[in-house]
Design goal:
Order of helices and strands of chain A: HEEHEHHEHHEHEEEHEEHEHE
Shape of chain A: globular
CATH superfamily of the largest domain in chain B: NIF3 (NGG1p interacting factor 3)-like
Radius of gyration of chain A: 20 Å
Number of helices of chain B: 10
Number of strands of chain A: 12
Number of strands of chain B: 11
Largest interface: A-B, 63 and 64 residues
Strand content of chain A: 15-25%
Helix content of chain B: 25-40%
Largest sheet of chain B: 6 strands, mixed
Largest sheet of chain A: 5 strands, mixed
Oligomer: heterodimer
Structural class of chain A: alpha/beta
CATH class of the largest domain in chain A: Alpha Beta
Number of domains of chain A: 2
CATH superfamily of the largest domain in chain A: NIF3 (NGG1p interacting factor 3)-like
Shape of chain B: elongated
CATH class of the largest domain in chain B: Alpha Beta
Strand order of the largest sheet of chain B: 5-6-8-9-10-7
CATH architecture of the largest domain in chain A: 3-Layer(aba) Sandwich
Chain lengths: 288, 306
């Protein structure tokens, strides 16, 4: 028997970085919904606790979902503006919203526990999100080894040396490997690319500047970009012939394989209950 | 984009502008031997500052501060050659504006990749240098027209969007100026998306929901989850742009999973606002006649691989 609280303590012990419990930006890691005292019947990891993910968790007898996003579509009152997300809805708004109300009822009826694990997982010396994404792409052998002896998949070591290809082929290949429908690309499809920076989540201009200090980077891959910030920054880089392009694979797509990594990691120190990665899946489709 | 600007950002902008204005005022005294039309002022002597003064007078709302609607580059008191209106003053757009002979660019969105065009952090960025050099060499004056074009009644951006979509007749009168809802002839989600893709010239539409879903009520929900929550109960499909995936898309897919017959169409930002700058060109022509005025689309920045 293990409670949600005990599960969290076990995670805190194994994450091997000083636990940050009071991040100023948005939710802190911990229980977002459900009770600390609840007995954990099984653990699901996923990018987001969508209704579909929660149903599959319940169907497989698991009541605890560890994820990056929050159940009610907002990263909270304190989420920094640089994410360009909206203000958090008030409690009254959530209570009156039919989708939120039904989801809250589903969570309560099934005694679900939803745990956020982002900041501390990302603070580790080896970036589980990056490693998961690199493995999903089958790019492990292309990862450029760090010269300074830092561990593989250190958050600063995001560079991959691929066999020479075109931006179009890179985008099509990425789409196929990740089984997604809607990657979005900036740049000339025919331009030759070889050195790629692989990142996850929302790319900010400051991130792009830092990443591009490394010489010879042709393309940056990210989850998403603000369309008056990093997106036009790359349009301008391309027009100035300073980079070949930007490939946005989607927020969920870029972060989801990391949830798979997290499931494997959890299994290394939790033996009492089953652990399963259930991908939330890309939300979008496109016109053919 | 409806981000409010903070005081610090406004101060930053002012500092940038003064420094730039001094440099540019100096450089404009030196004429190159060969001039393109973009470098040759019209005989009218009309300046960017005079155009902006007319905009102040015609926009019909009190000018507010702080605002993003300010000069970003160039000498506002130099005679202009022609006016380009656009959604986003990307480098590519500026190159096309110069080729078209227009050295005054009125842009809805930023030039230097942040809401307030804060450049203090870009001093060491070679791309900033490159873009600024191009702007200075071609004596481009850039003025942003965002807050007050939205504040115009009706909102100039949505007037343009409705016109480009041919949806003026379908608009439902709304109490909230940021709410734009429509009752359209019944169609499917797929056909509606295709219609939007064609009319708005888009390449990167992303859609949530059953392609065959029947749709008659459609509403813009801006960028944020609160707007999505306010509008979704009233419509079959939400239209959003620049809405973070964990807000709009996750919300609507949960609504669908719970059995609601709903959909979301996520456009590129440009898809929601570029038509409004076409409208801006039409509007400007009613009170600026001395120089050519051209709407040049900056275009959907994205493509999707087959």
């Amino acid at each position: 028997m293990i409670s949600a609280q005990q599960l969290l303590e076990r995670i805190q012990k194994n994450v091997r970085v000083p636990w940050q419990s009071q991040r100023s930006d948005g939710f802190s890691d911990g229980v977002l919904a459900g009770s600390d005292d609840a007995t954990v019947t099984g653990v699901v990891t996923s990018f987001a606790p969508t209704i579909a993910v929660l149903r599959r968790a319940v169907a497989s007898g698991k009541n605890t979902v560890i994820c990056r996003e929050a159940p009610f579509y907002s990263r909270g009152e304190r989420a920094p503006l640089f994410w360009r997300n909206g203000p958090a809805p008030s409690k009254e708004m959530l209570d009156n919203d039919p989708v939120c109300r039904a989801k809250q009822e589903f969570i309560s009826q099934n005694n679900l526990v939803i745990i956020r694990l982002v900041d501390n997982w990302d603070a580790r010396k080896s970036d589980g999100q990056l490693r998961g994404l690199a493995r999903a792409l089958g790019w492990e052998q292309f990862h450029i080894a760090p010269e300074n002896g830092s561990p593989p998949y250190h958050p600063d070591n995001v560079y991959f040396s691929l066999p020479q290809t075109s931006l179009n082929s890179l985008a099509a290949n990425t789409r196929e490997k990740l089984k997604i429908r809607c990657p979005r690309v900036i740049g000339d499809p025919a331009s030759g690319v070889q050195k790629v920076a692989l990142t996850h989540g929302l790319l900010l201009v400051a991130d792009a500047e830092r990443i591009l200090r490394e010489p010879g980077v042709d393309v940056v891959i990210a989850g998403d970009a603000v369309e008056w910030e990093a997106a036009p920054y790359f349009q301008d880089l391309v027009a100035a012939k300073r980079a070949k392009g930007l490939l946005l694979i989607g927020q969920e797509t870029s972060e989801e394989p990391g949830s798979g990594e997290m499931a494997e990691w959890l299994k290394s120190f939790i033996g009492e209950v089953p652990i399963e990665w259930i991908p939330a899946g890309e939300p979008f489709w496109r016109l053919s | 984009m409806e981000i409010e600007l903070g005081g610090d950002s406004a101060m930053d902008r002012t500092r940038m502008s003064r420094r730039r204005f001094c440099q540019l005022a100096g450089s404009s005294l030196v004429f190159a031997p060969l001039l393109t039309r973009a470098q040759m002022p019209s005989t009218s002597g009309l300046t960017a500052r005079e155009v902006v003064a007319r905009i102040h007078k015609n926009v019909g709302v009190p000018w507010r501060t702080p605002t993003a609607d300010e000069f970003k580059t160039g000498d506002p008191d130099a005679p202009i050659t022609g006016i380009t209106t656009t959604f986003m003053s990307t480098l590519d757009l500026l190159q096309r504006s110069v080729a078209a002979g227009n050295n005054f660019v009125i842009t809805h969105e930023p030039t230097f990749w942040s809401a307030a065009d804060v450049v203090s952090g870009l001093r060491d960025d070679p791309l900033y240098d490159y873009k600024l050099n191009f702007i200075e060499k071609n004596r481009i004056v850039i003025w942003r027209f965002h807050d007050h074009w939205h504040a115009h009644r009706p909102d100039g951006i949505f007037t343009g969007w409705n016109k480009t979509m041919g949806w003026e007749k379908y608009a439902v009168p709304a109490e909230n100026p940021f709410s734009h809802e429509y009752v359209i002839p019944e169609t499917s989600l797929e056909d509606l998306s295709r219609d939007m893709q064609t009319k708005l010239n888009l390449r990167s539409l992303r859609i949530v929901g059953d392609p065959k879903l029947r749709i008659t009520r459609v509403g813009h929900a801006g960028h944020y989850i609160q707007q999505c929550m306010q509008v979704l109960p009233k419509v079959d499909a939400l239209i959003v742009f620049e809405c973070r995936e964990w807000e709009g898309a996750e919300y609507v897919r949960d609504a669908i999973a719970l059995g609601q017959k709903k959909a979301l169409i996520q456009m590129p930002h440009e898809g929601g606002e570029e038509a409004g700058m076409d409208q801006c060109a039409r509007w400007l022509r009613t009170f600026v006649t001395e120089v050519p005025i051209k709407f040049i689309p900056s275009g959907d920045p994205f493509w999707m691989p087959a």
